[in-house]
């Protein structure tokens, strides 16, 4: 991850530090912040103002432990998305796979080009990081490719992905990535359903879904699956 860091600032008294990280989008993500305490807001403001001199659009998670939302609003930043952790039972609702698209187990798709295409469906979503070779290898980051799924179109291009981690009877996934041209379809929930079905065969019953940068419509659709958002962290943009 270090090559993605392009600049950093440290408070003189060690009460905080931030760095900027490249993202797949035009913005740079703010990492770090100011330690809690009576001077947190002032330190955070000073560090963020320094970072804003870069001239780039910046994104940051509004986290009270590091970058309180009030501080970001004071600087004129606006809420543009969120991170949410959803929990509930494995979904059972039917979801149609769009015509010309196939869902395959990730274990059956060793082609790194297809995996990269599928992983790149997150590229325009707020809060996501750049794809590296470590994200493409089988069972990347401890995931289970026999449970996770990828969507491919008629030309064989990867147009969707749902990575999966199994821990006892709990399935953890990232919110499925879907190519922009297919986001009006039910492919997102079809990927989630296929991954959930594979996990159910392995004894899973519960679901944890971590979602970054989802649209309001996607958030509403997830709530319609009977899932509950147990944690929500706003993401703000500097402009």
From TrEMBL:
InterPro entries assigned to the protein according to its UniProt record, in alphabetical order: Acyl_CoA_acyltransferase
Gene3D superfamilies, alphabetized: 3.40.630.30
Record's protein name: N-acetyltransferase domain-containing protein
Species annotation: Deinococcus soli (ex Cha et al. 2016)
Source organism phylogeny: Bacteria, Thermotogati, Deinococcota, Deinococci, Deinococcales
């Amino acid at each position: 991850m270090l090559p993605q860091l392009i600049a950093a600032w440290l408070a003189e008294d060690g009460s905080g530090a931030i760095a900027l990280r490249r993202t797949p989008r035009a913005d740079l993500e703010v990492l770090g912040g100011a330690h809690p305490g009576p001077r947190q807001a002032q330190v955070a403001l000073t560090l963020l103002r320094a970072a804003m001199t870069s001239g780039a659009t910046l994104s940051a998670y509004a986290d009270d432990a590091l970058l309180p939302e009030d501080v970001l609003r004071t600087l004129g930043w606006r809420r543009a998305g969120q991170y949410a952790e959803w929990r509930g039972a494995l979904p059972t609702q039917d979801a149609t796979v769009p015509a010309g698209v196939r869902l395959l187990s990730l274990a059956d798709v060793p082609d790194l080009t297809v995996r990269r295409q599928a992983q790149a469906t997150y590229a325009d979503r707020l809060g996501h990081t750049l794809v590296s070779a470590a994200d493409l290898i089988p069972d990347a980051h401890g995931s289970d490719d026999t449970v996770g799924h990828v969507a491919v179109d008629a030309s064989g291009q990867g147009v969707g992905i749902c990575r999966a981690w199994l821990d006892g009877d709990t399935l953890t996934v990232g919110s499925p990535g879907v190519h922009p041209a297919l986001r009006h379809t039910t492919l997102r929930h079809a990927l989630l359903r296929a991954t959930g079905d594979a996990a159910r065969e392995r004894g899973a019953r519960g679901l944890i879904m971590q979602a970054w940068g989802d649209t309001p419509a996607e958030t509403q659709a997830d709530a319609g699956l009977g899932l509950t958002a147990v944690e929500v962290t706003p993401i703000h943009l500097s402009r």
